[in-house]
Amino acid sequence: MTRQIVAAAALGVFSVIASVQTGAQSRTAAAPTFSKDVAPILYRNCANCHRAGEVGPMALLTYKDARPWAKSIATRVANGTMPPWHADPAHGEFLNDRRLSDAERDTIVKWATGGAPEGNKADLPAPPTFAEGWQMGQPDVVFAMQEDYPIPAEGTIDYKWFEVPTNLTEDKWVQAIEIRPGARTNVHHVIAYMRTPPPAQPAAAPAAGAAAAQGPRPTPPFTMAAGMGRPPDAPKPDRAPVENDRPPTRSPAGWLGGFAPGQAVRVYQPGTALKIPAGAVVVLQMHYTANGKAAADRTRIGIKYASAPPKTEVRVVALANQNFVLPAGAPDTRVDAEVTLNQDMTLWSVLPHTHVRGKKWEVTAIYPDGRSELILNVPKYDFNWQTDYVFKQPLQLPKGTKLHTAAWYDNSPAHKANPDPKKDVYWGDQTWEEMQFTAFTFSFASAETKTTAGQQ
Q1: How many CB atoms lie within 10 A of CB 265?
Q2: Which of 27, 45, 131, 173 could share a disulfide with 306, CB 3.0–4.6 Å?
Q3: DSSP, residue by residue, 380-442
Q4: DSSP label at 36?
Q5: What distances in angstroms separate CA 235 from CA 230, 232, 410, 431, one per listed residue?
Q6: What are phi and psi of 94, to 5 degrees?
Q7: What's the rounded Cα separation, in Å, for the pair 187 and 118?
Q8: What's the pTM?
Q9: How far apart are the two ends of the chain, measured CA to CA in Å?
Q10: Dihedral of CA 150/152/135/47: which sign?
Q11: CB atoms within 10 A of CB 17
Q12: Domain range annotation of the chain
């Protein structure tokens, strides 16, 4: 009898163990695997940044790469901080929306909480291929600074200006552009402008009264609101204690492209492109920040050309309000800017920009009939992930529409990134100063593209 009891007990124990093992195996089998389920998501949405030489702090191309970070990946994906995207989905749809779907997020979280199994290696899809050194793929042409500029380890550095001749003998059309700093950790931002040769002078001066006969000058396409210039009595912006060794030779002209944390690539929709005129010189505005270690920078600009002249030429215009003060300690100061459109236009994208105290953005279209529409809402602006928000359906804006921007700033001690909450803050170039700046990509509704020659 005793032997039967012992045997039964032993059988029960073995049954429990077997049940636990079977349950664990079942849970493991049910969990998504890296090879079959997770790798395709990472390849589509993450690998472009999370690979060697790019901005991501670790590569995510292989199981060996991703496995140590499984819990961290799941946490960032679940709370929405990765992939980074800050526009409120209730206001507008965007082509470059980086958010994962609910199913993709659920797959990654289940994988991490289920032990992060690798799965069958045969299920692993082919890894994505990248053009070495470029997120957008291999460029058709690369324009680079003509020198390695030495960046000091310490001190305040004024904007530096560099000129790069394109040597183009005909107009070219930009389909995609990527700006790649050589010293990424030292580059706060880059703006690439285009300066074109002056038009040929007429052989002889026009006769007196000829100019008057041509009629009045056409109305400019934009009218900026009054009162947005930096007031003359505002404190001077911080400057470097030494003379600028690369000042601008003259004012820059048309916008070509930009780089800021989180924003390096701009791809224009099929049928649209931005023109580089023949003979243009690229003018680079470089904002360097010392980080305790000397470095050298040679920034490059990669460009993919459109295969043919586009149906629509796009342009970029900047709206900025330099007339503001952020009081010391103030947690919630609003700064507005506004521009009026003097002809029908199509709006393709919006890029809002502040420095580290910026916390929220709104962009509103106010139509001629008085109707208002919030076209972009960024409730948690992040200086480290700035984005050019590209509309899925470009906005058709009639003449008389006002584009109104509003930015909110936190200059209080509670804001961890605040350089000095005890100081009033004004417009300025340096990171510890502030900006209220928006770049709009637009086209004239009825404009025909013009070029000096066919696209090669």
Answers
A1: 19
A2: 173
A3: T--TTS---EEEEEEEEE-TT-EEEEEEEE--STT-TT-S-TTS-EEB-SSTTSB--EEEEEE
A4: I
A5: 10, 8, 20, 16
A6: -130, 140
A7: 38
A8: 0.84
A9: 96
A10: positive
A11: 10
A12: 31-123, 131-196+253-313, 314-449
Q: What is the pLDDT along the chain (456 residues), one digit of tens a residue?
A: 444 444 444 444 334 334 434 444 444 457 899 999 999 999 998 988 898 877 788 889 999 999 999 999 999 999 888 998 999 999 999 999 999 999 999 999 999 999 999 999 999 999 888 777 788 889 999 999 999 999 999 998 999 999 999 999 999 999 999 999 999 889 999 999 999 876 665 555 555 555 555 666 778 999 999 999 998 888 888 888 889 999 998 877 899 999 988 888 999 999 999 999 999 999 999 999 999 999 999 999 999 999 999 999 999 999 999 999 999 999 999 999 999 999 999 999 999 999 999 999 999 999 999 999 999 999 999 998 899 999 999 999 999 999 999 999 999 999 999 999 999 999 998 889 999 999 999 999 765 444 333 333
Structure tokens at 372: 């208002």
Could you please state the CATH topology (level 3) that the domain comprising 314-449 is classified under: Jelly Rolls (2.60.120)
Which residue type is seen at 221?
P
Locate 442 and state its tokens. 């637009």
Enumerate the β-bridge partners of residue 361: 378, 407
Residues in the chain: 456
Q: Which residue has the tokens 């349950």?
A: 23
Matching CATH topology for 131-196+253-313 and 314-449?
A: yes
CATH architecture of 131-196+253-313: Sandwich (2.60)
Q: Residue type for 59, please?
A: A
Q: Give residue 411's identity as a one-letter amino acid code.
A: N
Q: How far apart are CA 433 and CA 188, in angstroms?
A: 13
